[in-house]
Write a structure and sequence with these properties.
GO terms for molecular function: homogentisate 1,2-dioxygenase activity; metal ion binding. The chain contains two helices and 28 strands. It is mainly beta and about 450 residues long. The strands form six sheets. Strands 1-16-20-13-10-15-8-7-28 form a nine-stranded antiparallel sheet. A six-stranded antiparallel sheet has the order 6-25-24-27-22-21, with no helix packed on it. It starts with 5 loop residues before the first strand and ends in a 25-residue tail after the last helix.
Length: about 450
């Protein structure tokens, strides 16, 4: 496939046109847009949102989106590919959980929409507050089929298999170690790239029902560090002028609907605005850390955050643990034992995560996931603790060839029945990771 071109930046106002002169010279809705196009606005925030937070884009397309047949129900194979707080599919548990690499039956025959299944969530998309975490397993491209989500934004994280994601704004290539965000209401179609016969792509999705992902504030870190604005990429306008029947699937109030239309939904010739999908290469993350002693809080690994109404508290933080140098003196270097007021759902994308080096019980292997719910104690396994407690504290690089991610939320995540009972991938003896921790307590001798 030819290499794609991109615009750079995060949250910028972008002007992009596939044909020179397709953007109106004056105003967003001229009486007759260039080339006989239709003007259509897509809003990501309320019209009256503060200027600094207002998000919207103008699309100049061959036909307006309203040209389609009536909605009809759509039934994906996985009925748990959505979340709402009163779903009968919920099977909540405070138990620490870890999964072997997740997969769906007949995954090689599924496309992206049909290959989603929900692990956990909180809140309600109808009232636009909360989030859900899904896994996708798909071996087929979406052929004349598109999808848009009225429930929230989707942060897509491939773990195996590259994706080519066509959107109304243009196309994004998203291989493993890249992420992509497609916001609420934007139509897209996912092609799997370079898979062998019988293979499937796998990854994870964090769906937020309220607000949008943004870059975290840097505070005392200063102007530089973490994810840089310039490393985010948005698509260049591209259009498809095809008169064929398409199926468009819509996720709405945790249900699935579809309609037919006689033309491609990707017929946008030009666009102008700041409500645009984007991708980011996780390898570009500039990791911060201690150069004296102790652990900075793991928030220093935050790539994107979706803030709640409470300052400093997130509906979802997207956090990564990339290869990095450790130099702290007199410090237990792996992540410490911890009980959090947040929920932590982690995924191992590649390699060996430095806080879970043991492979007993299956281990925290690439493609696998774990969930440590609110106030559930967690930390390094017994083997990792023993090794780190005796290690020579010289500068060392950890995580070579690895990448782990975390979706962290201030909400309590309720797991689905599929995730804990039906997937067949829960490691039932995960609790034994800490069973071998020895007692070292030696009180002083009595006088």
């Amino acid at each position: 496939m030819p290499e794609l071109q991109y615009h750079r930046g995060f949250g910028n106002h972008v002007n992009s046109e596939a044909i020179a002169g397709a953007l109106p010279a004056n105003g967003n809705t001229p009486q007759r847009p260039p080339y006989g196009l239709y003007a259509e606005q897509l809003s990501g925030t309320a019209f009256t949102a503060p200027r600094a937070h207002n998000q919207r884009s103008w699309l100049y397309r061959i036909r307006p989106s309203v040209m389609h047949e009536p909605f009809a129900p759509y039934s994906p194979p996985r009925v748990v590919a959505s979340f709402h707080a009163h779903s009968p599919e919920i099977e909540a548990t405070p138990q620490q959980l870890r999964w072997d690499p997740l997969e769906l039956p007949n995954a090689a025959a599924l496309d992206f929409v049909d290959g989603m299944a929900t692990l956990a969530g909180a809140g309600d998309s109808q009232t636009k507050d909360g989030l859900a975490v899904h896994v996708y397993c798909c071996g087929q491209s979406m052929h004349r089929k598109a999808f848009y989500n009225s429930d929230g934004d989707m942060l897509i994280v491939p773990q195996q298999g590259a994706l080519r994601i066509r959107t109304e704004f243009g196309t994004l290539d998203v291989p493993p170690l890249f992420i992509c965000v497609v916001q609420r209401g934007i139509k897209f179609s996912v092609d799997v790239v370079g898979l062998e016969e019988g293979a499937f792509a796998r990854g994870y999705i964090c769906e937020v029902f309220k607000g949008h992902f943004e870059l975290p504030e840097l505070g005392p870190i200063g102007a530089n560090g973490l994810a840089d604005v310039k490393d985010f990429q948005t698509p260049v306008a591209a259009y498809e002028d095809v008169d064929e029947e398409w199926t468009v699937v819509n996720k709405f109030m945790s249900g699935y609907w579809q309609y037919k239309q006689g033309h491609s939904p990707f017929d946008v010739v030009a666009y102008s605005g700041n409500y645009v999908p984007y991708r980011y290469n996780l390898v570009n993350f500039n990791t911060m850390g201690s150069i004296s002693y102790g652990h900075p809080d793991p928030s220093i690994f935050t790539v994107l955050t979706c803030p709640s109404d409470t300052p400093g508290t997130a509906i979802a933080d997207f956090v990564i643990f990339p290869p990095r140098w450790l130099v702290a003196e007199d410090t237990f270097r792996p992540p410490y034992f911890h009980r959090n007021c947040m929920s932590e759902l982690m995924v191992n994308l590649a390699g060996v995560y430095d806080a879970k080096e043991s492979l007993k019980g299956g281990g925290f292997v690439p493609g696998g996931a774990s969930l440590h719910s609110m106030n559930a104690a967690h930390g390094p396994d017994a083997e990792t603790h023993k090794k780190a407690s005796a290690a020579e504290l010289k500068p060392m690089k950890v995580g070579e060839g690895s990448m782990a991610i975390m979706f962290e939320s201030a909400y309590q995540l309720a797991t689905t029945r599929w995730a804990v009972l039906e997937s067949g991938k829960v490691q039932s003896d995960y609790w034994k990771a800490w069973a071998g921790l020895e007692k070292h307590f030696k009180p002083p001798s009595s006088a």
